[in-house]
Amino acid sequence: MNKILIIEDDLEINALLADFLKEKGYAVHCQYDGLHVLDFLNKEKIDLIILDIMLPYRSGDIILSDVRKKFTIPVIIISAKETTQNKIDLLRLGADDYITKPFDMEEVLARIESNLRRVQFQNSQTECLQYNNLTLNLEKNTAFLNGIELSLTAKEFGILELLMKYPDKVFSKSNLFQSVWDTEYIAEDNTLNVHISNLRNKLKAICSDTEFIDTVWGIGYRLHKAKD
Hints:
Largest sheet: 5 strands, parallel
Radius of gyration: 20 Å
Shape: elongated
Low-confidence stretches: none
Structural class: alpha/beta
Order of helices and strands: EHEHEHEHEHEEEEHEHHEE
Number of strands: 12
Mean pLDDT: 90
Number of helices: 8
CATH architecture of the largest domain: 3-Layer(aba) Sandwich
Distance between the termini: 37 Å
């Protein structure tokens, strides 16, 4: 299920969009100002953002600029500003699409579907993920470290794939478990920790002097980030 983040300070418009998209099968998260967008994106995997420009505290163009410094998530602007120059400026700043208020819900849906199809196509063209000497072939579901094939379970492969797709993201245990197992996370369940431990052991058996997965205490896991 694709996850959409709506950032719109108008409560009625926000609710209308959220209800409509939920009916269409999307998971929806709502925010009403620009204060905590980046913090949220660092914790939650979002597939598309619907962003208003006129927001309290931090305007939409500043949020867009900040998002583009770290994420490639598709961003659709919704704004009452109709000038061509304004649209050009925002598209050059990194917006993927622009919808003028008032808008038709079916048009919003069509734009969302179009952008998600584009991302899906681009991702399908990227068959391999690379991190140092570790390579994942997403088409063949194979993993090689220093040219040696790793014998991974499907869940171990899924964990590595997620971490390597989002190398700057810290995944909570709940988020990582739900993404890979596609089921609800139970805090007392040690399944994820066991899989992480087994995965680390398999990687260290081939490359003992290199870290691949960092534990972020109190939060979860991320791809290893070398210290500056």
